[in-house]
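S., here's the first fold you wanted:
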Amino acid sequence: MVVARVALGNGLVPVGRLVFETDGRRAHSTFIYDQEWIDNPRGFDLCPQMPRTSAPYHASSGGRDSQKRDVIAGPFADTSPDSSGESHMNLAV
């Protein structure tokens, strides 16, 4: 299990945490807003499909036809590398 703390700005204001897990051929992620972000009057929804609530947001993928990017919840999928970026990362390792 990989856990990423999501924070905003130089002050690292806590926004939430993104948990990524894989088990065999299936993978999934869960994003949970921090209560501090939910209560923050300057806080905002990270995307329209993820309003600020204490409910977790899940994304999953499995099987041959699934897209790897579908595994990452909501707006975080846009930050993951595409296949070209992944090949460059593999070369650097």
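And the second, which I think is the more interesting of the pair:
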Amino acid sequence: MTDNASKTPDATLAAFRKSIDNIDAALIHMLAERFRITQAVGEYKAKVELPPADPNREARQVERLRAMAKEADLDPEFSEKFLRFVIDEVIRHHERAAAAKD
């Protein structure tokens, strides 16, 4: 039995992994920027006394991103689960902002 974990990856695999690592880094930075903006939205909503969640906007976003996923050959179910995860976190941030205002 060969121990593949101890082998040095070949150049092709190393290049793929470097690209994946770069994409992962970009995703983290993009999510950080998205959450900076949604944090400001949450603070604004709290200031003007809007509810933390906007189900109509969420539904429009889900449909929009499902369509984009299909065009990009990405599983729309996966994209919706990912978006739902992000939206749920944003709503938690908005709820905290509303609670801090009180």
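Why I say that: Residues 10-101 form a domain with the Chorismate Mutase Domain, subunit A fold (CATH 1.20.59.10). Residues 11-47 form the longest helix (37 residues).

Talk tomorrow,
H.
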